[in-house]
Amino acid sequence: MPKKKTNKLAAKRVKRTGTGKLVFNRPGHKHLLSSKSRKRKRHLRRAKTVCAADHKRISDML
Question: Is this prediction's pTM over 0.70?
Fold first, then answer.
């Protein structure tokens, strides 16, 4: 059986941690920031882990 190819779109957006979790940066923190609250922008800076329902599908892309 041939090797699976890496989905480059997913590889640029999602990274695997040392423990095997998948993390990605939240969208919406690049422009149009003046209308967003300080709290909302602060939370957008944090990385988020991929939920359990999508974990297998995205890890297969990587």
Answer: yes
